[in-house]
Amino acid sequence: MSQAARQRGRVFSYERFELTADGVLTCTYSLDDETFTEVFAFEAGDDADFTSPAVLGAARVLFLLAGISYYKTGAPPLLVGPADGLSPREADFLRDVHLHGLAEFSYRSGVDISDLRIEAGPRTPAPAAAVVRRGPLVPFGGGIDSIVVVDGTTAGRDGAALFVANTSDVPFEPIEDSAAITGLPVRRVRRHLDPKVLESKARGYLNGHVPVTGVISAAAVVSAVAHGHDRVVMSNEHSASEPTGLVANGVPVNHQWSKGLDFERAFRAVLAENVTGVDYYSALRPFSELWVAERFAELTDYHLAFRSCNKAFFVDAGSRHPTWCGRCDKCCFIDLILSPYVAPAELDAIFRGHEPLRDESLAPVFESLLGQPGSDKPLECVGDEGECRTAVTLAVARPDRADTPLLAALAAHVATLEQAGKPVPSEQALLHRQGEHFLPADDGR
Q1: For residue 414, what are the CA distances in angstroms to 142, 218, 328, 336, 366?
Q2: In the predicted model, is pLDDT for residue 362 greater than 80?
Q3: H helix or E strand, kind and range, residue 11
Q4: What is the pTM of this model?
């Protein structure tokens, strides 16, 4: 039976959440007559306080966001809010999180949830003040973005730490290897997803992409408040806000919606209704991936440790790829965006002898990153098409790239695209701040 033919549920409800003094948050939801429970086990210790009103306020926001993994199993038209109600801002936020955050899910499954309505009693915000005694907490995924943020955010700030979320009992090697290089302490949470969602196919649930960065953001805030950090600093760059030309649920499809500016703005507003004293922003919001790549090129200690291939991050540890696959959209993008600033021999070492730009069979993957008239960019965490075209023009000009036939062919393709109205932004433009952001005055980027 195809997903589109499966029966939608009737009602999804936020039942309750409970947070223990030792940092175990239990969130309970229901879909019709079925109950789902997710447990977030935060590492305590280090004088963390999981009992304060501010931590409970942050946990409430996480409870609201984490429900989307279970809502999507049946994607019903009615969502019933928690017993303490929703403020108007929270209700609007939840609707946006579902319509935008599940747009890719809806596009792929054929299940339109634009009829979603939210019912909840009124709630008057009463934010609690966090007690701050430490510097920034940086959610860390071991890729070039979070490594660059750590390098630029934590120097000289007392009490800075990393935040790592795991959905498995087995650590993710690329995250741990890069985290060790930073020399910073790590705050951790173990997400125990309800086992039923891991059996979605067998149980006949609807399944697909969820805005997981939104959930991780809220979990990081819980950890930050409990440990007294003054801010959560994300690593979401400018192009994350760019949607595809696809439409579902009446909105543009953006694989990275919960990494984008609209989510950041709305999340900050909802957070302020529940807890104050802890900031939340992306340090890379006004910057391009090319800007990130130029800075990462200088951080050579991380070059053989980091990994951005999604096949390294499967929940099932036995299914994880032991190194870069070298063929997926993400591998090709990382290779391309670094190629103007990192020597070919070093990139080949990073990809363990299988640099994507050396594989001419991958031309269609690279061409999709460059933007094809009438087609859409991959539904993946990759940069925008313009900066990919710029990366090609910069890389092909390197003397040490004269023996890369695929790159030469891509450069010719970029020239054709430019003639067809697809611009190639200048390097100078891409290496400067652009657009709205929430960086505070003391973030000296």
Answers
A1: 31, 40, 21, 13, 11
A2: yes
A3: strand 11-19
A4: 0.94
Report the run of H or E that residue 69 belongs to, with start and end.
Answer: helix 68-71
pLDDT, one tens digit per residue, over 182-228 is 999 999 999 999 999 989 989 999 999 999 999 999 999 999 999 99
How many CA atoms within 13 Å lie on the side-chain side of 121?
Answer: 7
Length of the chain: 445
Q: Which helix (H) or strand (E) holds 72?
A: none
Residue 100 has pLDDT above 90, yes or no: yes
- Tens-place pLDDT, residues 378-410: 666 677 899 999 999 999 999 999 999 999 999
Other residues' Cβ atoms within 10 Å of the Cβ of residue 131: 13
Q: What is the pLDDT of residue 294?
A: 97
Q: Which residues pair with 17 in a beta bridge?
A: 27
pLDDT confidence tier of residue 167, bands split at 50, 70 and 90: confident
Q: Answer for the pair 194, 36: CB distance below 8 angstroms, yes or no.
A: yes
> Do the Cβ atoms of 37 and 27 come closer than 8 Å?
yes
d(CA 103, CA 383): 19
> What kind and span of H or E run contains 90?
helix 88-101
- Residue 266, pLDDT > 80, answer yes
Residue that the structure tokens 């061409």 belong to: 367
Cα 31 from chain centroid? 26
Whether 164 and 89 have beta carbons less than 8 Å apart is answered as no
- Whether 337 and 297 have beta carbons less than 8 Å apart is answered as no
